[in-house]
Amino acid sequence: MPKRLAIVTSAIALMLAPAAIVACGDDSGDSAAKPKSNGQAAQGETLEKGVTLTLWTMPNSPQPKEDLQKMVAPFTAKTGVNADVQEVGWDVQFDRIRNAAVAGEGPDITQAGTTQVPFFAALGGFTDLSDRVEEIGGKGAYAEGIWNTTQVQGQDGTWAIPWFTEARSLYYRKDVLEKAGVDPATAFKDLDSFKATLQAIKDKVPDIKPFGAPGKKAYDLVHQVMPFVWDHGGAELNADATKSTINAPEAQQGVEFMADLITDGLFDKSQLERDGTQVENQFKGGRLAVWIGGPWVLGSVDRPEDDTWSDEARENVGVAPMPTGPSGKAYTFVGGSDLMVFKSSKHPAEAWALVKFLSEDQTQVDYAKLLGMFPARLDPQQQVGDSSENHKAFFEAIQTGRTYASIPQWGQIENAYKTRFGNILDSAAGVGSDYNAATVKSQLDAAAKEADGLLAQSAG
Amino acid sequence: MNRGLDVLTWLVLLLMLSPIIWLVAASLQTDGQLSTGAYNLLEPTFTAFSRMWKTVDFERYMVNSLIICTAAALCATAFASCAGYALARFKFRGATGLSLGVVGTQLIPGSLFLLPVFMGFVWLKQNTPVALFDTHAGMILVYTAFFTPVAIYFMRYFFAAIPRDLEEAAMVDGCTRFGAFVKIVLPAAAPGLVATFVYAFLFAWDELLFVAALTQENAETIPIGIRNFIGNYQERTAQLMAAGVVSTLPVLIAFFATQRWLVKGITAGAVKG
User: Signal peptide: which range, if any (chain A) (predicted)?
Assistant: First the structure.
């Protein structure tokens, strides 16, 4: 009977993907809050040798499957438990994980994007790891923003373990800044100096575009815009995540700051046609002087096979923390991926042992280095942060990084915001409606209305 | 006038070939050249072709695609030959209804079947030893079931166009009905069989929706694998293009190898001779 129920649930989830987010956030949310007996075996339990665990991973590194398979080889050698790493593309991972969670037919462990965790947790197909997290140091072993990604706001339970982390910082070209006569130490101190630096580059180094960011094609457009909203004291939702605040005056100022870079001619508007990685490649190829990006780009500097780098750009990469806003703080988006254990796993003790292994400091450092990401845990994070000046900028960004409200509906709300942010940037670039304060307000009002609708549906 | 038409033909041809030309040209560049627009078409490189096999386990997707698509196309063509022949030659109760029913299934959007098929496969896996979820057999079954109705429709008209005299002559000479079907009718319907096979093969080769939902690891095909070249943190456009070229090759080979069957009707003149 429970299997039949699971299949019927999967039916609804498959057919009504968008509605499922709302529906599951409501009904399954309650079930997600109940403590689960599954996977609560006592510490020190013996592991069954010869068992094979299945682990889903996404294309994170140059050779995702082989890289991770090598990484877990010592675990197999030590415990006798095999791990079969399976690669799931980012295009299909959301559907696959959802289907596996509701149908009870999937791997033992999966990687999940940090902002996806609350949605998956609400489906009810994952193990609550609350009773086990102390074995790996619990909440205290992680930065606050990162630990929050394992929770569902307003509910008990720990539904994931942070795996690796990324935060956004400013990448710049040292040689371009030198030509523009700007000191890198103060170039991006606050929003005013940030703008002044871009203006200096525009005036003095005409053969390179000062700045660029992707438009609505990018999966991470919201990650690019929100730091400026947070800088101005705005937020994506109110504190208890019941209402959108994206149309508040502070939020509007933040969005306008970014859009004004376009009207001031500091932001290369042709980048709006591109997605995140394409803009990244523009920086690596030497077409952009300043760009907001994650630590994986730093990891690719020393990889000669990465032919997207031009020699000039490769030799002159600098990283600076995001500028401080009028609120006095420098915000940035912190993301990455978590690990989740399926409730349908036939080997919960072994699955947890593998999660524990992947959370060991040395494994975290080794894997994060391979990916060009940061470890999720504080101690190994510090190690990687200390490895160079550029890494230090990212380490600092992670400590002050911020993420979105951990609610099941966030994915849909983010999509709504993405469309509206994209429209605003387009209008600033001369496409669509005229760019002015009223246009920005009406777009943000529409985004807030859509978000409120999504929040209300789940509450009702 | 003729020259004008020739020019127009070449222009249309060029327009239609331009995506393929771009696919091949881009696969011979590096990711860096593609992302910055600094193309150098005069100095092609095959790096993307050698790297694509390492980046993604493309061989596995390719083998899965070849097995599933070939088997499904063969099964659909075999079933459709039998059913199409029966509908073309015999009058039996319900023949019209069956014909209409076969065509009628095409009026229902395929995606509506996704859910019941998914539920059925998962239920079978969890409750019975029948393994269809994430297996070659499961995908072959799905694609065969999808394409058989259209194939029956095709084959029925091919068989109907073959003169009855041929098989009657064979039966007069001592052939059984089945013998005449196998030895006389099927060879005469070869262009139809080939066309049906190739059409079914191409349909399965491109299909993404069902294979994305009904597989997890063992039976994933190229449309799933090819997307792994694009990740959140890196895009390997040149390798994606190279994979595009590699996955187009079997289709091109299938087409050119069967081209003469596809375009030539061998029944023409069969009875006159």
Answer: 1-23
